Amino acid sequence: MPNDAPITSQRLERILAFMVASAVGLSILCFLAVIIATGVGVAKDTFSQTPWPTIIFLPVVGLPIGALLLVALIVISSIRRGREAKDASK
């Protein structure tokens, strides 16, 4: 990249990347929490108490949201790169 190239704002891409990482990462942590709790021997009736319904439900919502955010990140990134390539060819 030449030194005189304009610096483009990539704030939206960074925000989307952190949102994808947090949604998918939190979902994976919830999966691991359920797996570990089951392996340790937590009873089935304990999973219906306060924090467990949220922990069990979060991956159901978090993974699809993470996938949609990833698609949005790829689209925005490809649009930006296409514009940069078009500007570089002029």
In short:
The protein has 90 residues and is an all-alpha fold.
Average pLDDT works out at 90
Q: What is the general shape?
A: rod-shaped
Q: SS-based structural class?
A: mainly alpha
Number of domains: 1
Percentage of residues assigned to helices? over 70%
Distance between the termini: 16 Å
Number of strands: 0
- Beta-strand residue percentage: under 5%
Rg from alpha-carbon coordinates: 20 Å
Q: What series of H and E elements makes up the topology?
A: HH
- What does the largest sheet look like? none
Number of helices: 2
Low-confidence stretches: none
How would you describe this structure in keywords?
mainly alpha, 90 residues, 2 helices
Descriptive overview:
This protein has one domain. Helices cover 77% and strands 0% of the residues. Helix 1 runs antiparallel to helix 2. The two termini are 16 Å apart. The model has no long low-confidence stretch (mean pLDDT 90).
Helix and strand arrangement:
Layout: H1 11-40, H2 51-89
